Amino acid sequence: MPKARSKRLSRGFGVLALLGGILVLAGVVGLAYAAFATLTTMLLFGWLLLIGGVVGLLHAVQSRASNYFWLGVVVAALNIAAGVVVIKMPVNAAAALTMFAALLFLTGGVFRLVGSLVVRGPQMAWTLLQGAFDLLLGILVLADWPHSSLYVIGTFISLALLFDGLGLIALGVGGRRAVRSVNSELDSQERSRE
């Protein structure tokens, strides 16, 4: 019985490693074709907004007797409208989202720099470095905006896929090794009993 479980567990870790490999491949392809990855991401985001809005509207209609009916309708309508706009104008949506991301990097960098100088905690050097990196990234993205909007989102999404995939591969390979190690330990204990 334990052998069957360990085979299933090992197979599950193998599937994790395989999924990680697919994510790594998608991340590498996305980095090579960042503009395509940006437009694909924006279209996917638009469709998710649209579908979420339709589902929200159906839910609001089903619960029309509740006090929050109109709030549900308004939120669903906003999601539907935003989804339609993003699907119809993915380049403009990418430009707006890139501007928003750059402003987040700038403000986050400033707050980290100022906060680390004011607090002066044990992690001050790392916080200063992270704040400077965020500030630099925000400045670089804004300096090339709106042209940067063609590749920034695709690059970020591709890097996320790449690192998530590497994490899954590490988890899958490490899990398989752990299962093998436990199995060999159990086998050696069985042999020593005989």
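The record above closes out task 2.4. Task 2.5 opens with a second protein, given below.
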Amino acid sequence: MTAPLTPPPPPHEHSAQGSWQPPAAGPAAPGSQHAEYAGHGWYGQDGPGMKTELREAAVIAVAVALGGVLLGVLWWWLAPHVPLVGDVVEKSWVVYLKDTEGEQAIGVDGTFTLLGLGFGAVSALVVFLLRRRGGVPLVVGLALGGLLGSLLAWRVGVWLGPAQDVVAHAQAVGRGVTFDAPLKLGAKGALLAWPLAALVLHLGLMALFGPRDPEPDFTAGPYQESPAANGR
């Protein structure tokens, strides 16, 4: 007779509570926290990078500021003229307003302000259409470009306008002859119309039509129940 064979030991039973299984290798499932989506990198690495954003912001600031040349030309062309008259009093030339109750000086400031608002809206719209992603450097570059453009427009308009030496101008045209006053921006706050309009409109466009970050899906966790536990 032969001795009875010893039966092999039973396979190790897994706990009914399940065990941790490493996630299977392969492409990430849709909605996973590590999924890659169009226009962005991996989760937590959104945007093109700070160096790229600073470079783009500098280009935008320079391009917007150069628009100040056009604003200055339009201001010189559209602004109302302030009439002056020269006279001789006690052998000295004096210059005074021909129409003391006129509102031409207010119209000069108003024209610059309206043009600044228009240029701010156009620049914000163009920047939004060319680069739909926001970012602090881009917004700062847009606002800084608008301020520099306003300053450039102010100087260009003054340079294109009548001569600054009103006494010499009055002597040149003659006593009692009406001539135009130099182009002058009385309300310096008008210089902020362009940057403020560009900033507000760009932020509004980003809030309404800007890209939205996808919400991470927390329903699929990294833990899964062991198949052996399901068998029990």
